[in-house]
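Lab notebook, bench 4. We co-purified these components, and the gel suggests they stay together. Before we commit to crystallization screens, I want a quick structural picture of the whole thing.
Request: model the full complex, all chains together.
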Amino acid sequence: MSTSTDIDTGYADEADQVSIWDRIGRPVAPFAWPLVLGGAVILAAGCFLSWSYTSDVLGNLSIDFYPGAIQNLMIIAAILAVLFALMYRGPLSRLGEWLASATALRTLGLGSTVFMALVIALIGLQSGGLINVMPGAWVSLVGAVLLLVGAAGLTPRASRDPLHAHLPAWLDILTIVVLLATVLFGAAYVLDIEDGTVFSLVVLFTGLVAYTLTRAGFFTWVGIVAQTHRRVLMLGAVAVAFLFPFTQDGSDANMSIATQVLIFASTALGLNIVVGLAGLLDLGYIAFLGAGAYIGAMFSHSAFATIGWKPNFLVVVVIGALVSATLGLIIGSPTLRVSGDYLAIVTLAFGEIFRLAMGNLDGQDGPKLTNGPNGIPAIPDLEIGGFSFGETHEVLGITLGRFANYYFLLLLLAAFIITVFTRLNDSRIGRGWIAIREDEKAAEAMGVNTFGLKLFAFAGGAFLAGMAGTIKAHHDVSVTPDQYIFLESAFLLAAVVLGGMGTVAGVLIGATILKLMPEKLRFVADYRLLIFGLLLVLMMRFRPEGIVASKRRQLEFHEEDEELADRVEEVHLVEEQEAKA
Amino acid sequence: MTDLLQQLVNGLTLGSLYALIAVGYTVVYGIVQLINFAHGEVFMIGAFGALATWTVLFQGTTALWVLPVMILGAVVASVTTAVIMERIAYRPLRGAPRLAPLITAIGISVALQEAVRLFYPGAKSKIPFPRIDVVTGPALSFGGVTVQRAAVFTVGALLMSAALLWWFVNHTRTGHGMQAVSEDKDTARLMGVNVDRIIVIAFALGAFLAAIAGVAQGLLNANVDFRMGFLAGLKAFTAAVLGGIGNIQGAVVGGLVLGVAEALAVGFIPGQFGGSAWKDVWAFVLLIVVLVFRPQGILGARVVDRA
Amino acid sequence: MRSHMKFAVPVVVAALALSACGTRGEEPGTGSTGGDGAKKTVKIGVIAPLSGDLSALGKGIQHSVELAVKQANESNALPGWTIEVAAEDDEGKADVGKNGATKLAADDEIAGVVGNLNSSVSQQTQPVFAAANIVQVSPANTGPSLTRGADGNTRPYKTFFRTCTTDITQGAFAAKFLLDQGINKVATIHDKKTYGQGLVQYFTEAFKAGGGEIVAAQTINPDESNYAPVVSKVAPAKPQAVYYGGEYPQAGPLSQQMKAAGLNVPLMGGDGIYDPTYIQLAGATSNGDFATSVGEPTDATDAGKKFLADYEAAKYAEPSAAYGGYSYDAANAIIEGLKVALKDASDVKGARQAIVDAVGKVSFAGVTGQVGFDEFGDTKVKVISGYKVDGGKWTFVKSENLG
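Here is the predicted assembly.
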């Protein structure tokens, strides 16, 4: 019997949810199912009519029978609703045993209604009055409301635990491939959207669909499939990432954002080892990235480079990584013995020392190494064995510009870091870190070399950041101390924490969101940092484990949740069984 | 010799500022084991509160009687901010792992900075701070040593605040309650101390002193800037650790020591690594050195051992 | 049923009320580009600090360019083309500037850019614009290395020009200015950025050559707001004046703190401090401080007076500030170049090399004098003026042509 009502488990047994839904739903219960179908149809029908009188609002919604982007979204929602309705009763009801279709329909209904209301409000706002909203939009709104009311009338049924679903392997793999393809083309499409409001609506819609599918239990099943077919997923993900530049048709605008996201994500993954795996609060991580970048700049062929020796780039990468790792050792050795809070402040202080030192070593206040506050500009593009990263190349008829070249290199780097991360996570070292994270004294009592492991995490994370930094110097063309301020460390930490500590997917999502949003939502550019600060506060209050959290981590943050603990144990046992079988 | 004395004077002035802010850090850390990252912003909001009071009520006046009202305005702004912060952001996270309140604090710090920058008129660049008679004006000279008037105000403010604080903590019930809570929260609760209220008072106390520091900084530098809280906060936390975290006298001593150390580093480190360019670096190096060789600080820490 | 009616009626009424307000939009079909659809667009970019501490100067640059473009469009200076302004904010920071420059450089309709304000930012944006072959004319960069290279004799980027003269001239003028007043013991302070450091360097050379003595040389961290340590290091050397290389957000408080700490001597700076905000920040004790600025005061010439009058009439939110005239001339230099280069061109991107060549050869009468560039891209007009703070305002003292 479920006793906690405020933690959403999303699993089986929805029969316990007594709420407003039933109050709305009871009067319509006999008509619920046809109402849902009817609502979905009306919603879709409304999308084929025009929604706005003028053509410049939200990407041209003013032509009948030619749906614009946002109308297409609602058509997709309607199709989903029909599918779920058929799962509840009808030809797809076998599928309906596994997925909680009634809950999904309720979420979809509520979400569509809110979405339509928002769209109508925006059309009214942007075109100067609700009178500019054409009947088509109101029709769709009515359809959404009908869907909502109908869904409220459906009695939720208990659904089976996806943990026990056994589908043929080829179906699993097909699902993974289809999902990845959706991600690839969806990403390409979304990145091309120019209008900030349309972009936000699309993202909102994606979130709505994702949430609906989560409530249905779909992603639980996907998660289990992903665990079982890990190799396929990884290969697929790599393929998707590799194919991305080819969908850009030679345009560099999105590629430059993509490369910045990759650099940021790579650094965040390095930080994930320090914060996510070993649980060390590092607030000065940007200094390691900066050390790598400065090494890359100082040894480059830039006119302002301060060191005469110009070795091969691969040598520079190694030097950069080693210098960063050494810095990590220097700062780690004295401070890892002290408590976690002190470590945070000391790393913060070290980050500031690094920034100030880089700004001072200009020959006047120190040896001439870094060219002071002006930094080292005009760093030429990389050249590895004759292949110049600055030139455009033609592959299979598609032009790949400068940023696409760096993209592939960074992809290689990211893959390397992810490999290191996963191997460490699954090893004795990783388990040692988990032990230290959860209770350091107990770990030490059990013979875990806490200091050594912590130092390894610190220096290891620094090593990876140094590598990323050397590439960053060439990508950015210039290195200045202002790029390595505390705020950047805060962003990195936020990417790790908001995305989900200790998981690769989580950090990637977090990094993408944090780097992508400011680029696309330029109309709130001024409020960007304010939103960031508030986001941190809200996330810590309501979902401290992040968006994509490993269950273990979730448990750490919600220690009193018995159900969650049971669930973690159950999943773990089933996995063990399957591994033995 | 006068050089040394001059730098000592500079150091004590700077140190007094650090000390006033450090008390806020140390008191909060001693009771809830939270590094209140946003305390630097509380200090900044105090300065802006004083500025706002002057702009709204006393535009154009420079008379001395305006100063206490400005200080009152600063205190109101700071204390309100701190109390709201505690209520909304920190209290719900009392039992959570260390990372959650720390990240929240960073978030609040950034949000407050931006809020002031966006919503206070003219805050996107530096705003001149009003010149008040007697506490600003031509400097006083003793022998070869010049002492700024605002510096006298700062040191005086520290001395008065320290005295008031000492009396409050040692001779009032609430003060005794604070000492009890920082020693052992649960036993204090069992003894009938209202722990929640004490925590709010701790935050308010820190904010009160930070507000005074904000006014002092405004008078010293002649301008306020929405970024002024960050570095000052960091140095002040360094000072708190230096003196012994959780220990109020430690915060005062730590602040003064840090200020003097910085000033002496500026004046007397020879060669390329001296001078004001490296001032902050030396302060942070001092922090690291203290943590390595004497983590409990100069006067000894007073923190509950969190098992 | 009744409860439903109670709910429905207000909703219907509200809906009617809401729909009653608001006007019908335009007929769909009228394109967003109004007027003559046959004209092609060419853009002139502006990259300057439009927000932050130096926005007073940056906004003046932006509006002056807008004025020049407006006048060019109205007089149909480029037949068959409409000129637009694309403004990017560099916040006075090298990094932000580089990103803004990358954005402008990716736009195929950009023919030329006016910017930047800070020499340290231009150092980052020069390579970006040069790689895209976009001509860049700065109204305010006085750092000599931008056109003369690190060794003083090699032009690093053929696309970079400036309408203001360099710090070699400015520093020399300042040195002479102080020596003429009998001041021969000076302490220098700078903020370590390209502009400040360079200015102090050339001032020092000229000052020593003229027989003066530099009694102290210090630096400050531009993020710092308390200058007591620096002042305490400088004061014992008993300078008769302090020469500051840097901008007004630091110079103002430095002047105020200096005098409050007992070092009661004038502070002199370059064009970076020549702004009314300096006096605001420096307070009442700033009377007696000096500054130099490139060129003559804008209202000294007839062309200048006309420019100021036109600017006033256009009612921009911010005044044209110190570099208004230079930005106006920079924009017009680009427009003059476009007159030649775009005559037979079909698109902007292909004409970029021609635009660079044409701008290098312009010669016309501008607000700041006869606008023309030498083989390094430096302006041929080498006039510097000295100003003094008197009664809370900058007042003109004298100017000299050091060409």
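The first strand of chain C starts at residue 40 and ends at 48. Worth comparing against the SEC data before the next meeting. The CA atoms of residues 382 and 403 of chain C lie 5 Å apart.
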